């Protein structure tokens, strides 16, 4: 697996749902969210004729309070992986630890208790059409045995937290997609979870509504300290919300690291494809053909804080080379800037070769050839 982190230490303490503060906005963020650790998890589905490996020796750790994006194409294994966390699926082999406790093989009674610490947000909202927004949020509280007066107080508190303070009496059919998902998030927070699982939570939403929902999830993480695991096939969702990203392919985690690391320097082909969907900083074939119609030589250069581009460009200009940026883009993630630019160099070949050789020692540079 490319770029795997190590040296991770478990938190000394973990807050229980009962000990979490009642007021949503005032929850003590010094209490960590859940620490999730997959150790050599494999899952093989079998029938009389065939067997299918859904997960293949996956090891991955999510620290308390992190937001991790798990991304992959359909069939990559990401949903199966997350179903292990709340006991909806059981691995064929391996361990799955929540705050140091292995949940594999845990009795159903204990699993039900565990699930109260885990909130779920779904792609299609999964709201009860016969219940109001308030009724949907109150449902898990009623199952947990919370009294009517406390349920009413908690539901209104959550409605205010997700920006739907005046929508408690509305039924799902009266709400927009974004409002339905906000109700879903409020319901997921009802029992004070320390871990939130979001399974393609924005796939059914338009871009503007997606942005609003991701802002709300960041608020949940920032103000409540809850660990959030986001399953998605959209790299832009990862870019906007996550601290770390796991890229899955064929049941394996093939790349793992900070969002900045994976976006600025993807190590695998599948990660490069995902990054390309959200960072349009390399010319496509049509754009490249148009650019090649001009004079000079074209180079696409990977820009990072240590790429040395500006120094090399200054030397080339002093040697009479004209340098023009003709395509590209710069992105900032985790307080670091990176990107790619395509430049047109016009002048003598010798200083152009010097420019390329200098950058070839410090970053990725590729000439676009006719």
TrEMBL record:
InterPro entries attached to this UniProt entry: AAA+_ATPase, ABC_transporter-like_ATP-bd, ABC_transporter-like_CS, ACT-like_dom_sf, MetN_ABC, MetN_ABC_transporter-like, NIL_domain, P-loop_NTPase
Biased amino acid composition, Polar residues: 13-32
Keywords: Amino-acid transport, ATP-binding, Cell membrane, Membrane, Nucleotide-binding, Translocase, Transport
MF terms in GO: ATP binding
Domain (ABC transporter): residue spans on this chain: 36-275
UniProt cross-references to SUPFAM superfamilies, sorted A to Z: ACT-like, P-loop containing nucleoside triphosphate hydrolases
PANTHER family in UniProt: AMINO ACID IMPORT ATP-BINDING PROTEIN (PTHR43166), METHIONINE IMPORT ATP-BINDING PROTEIN METN (PTHR43166:SF30)
Protein's recorded name: Methionine ABC transporter ATP-binding protein
KW Repressor (keyword) present: no
Stretches the record annotates as Disordered: 1-32
Domain of life, per lineage: Bacteria
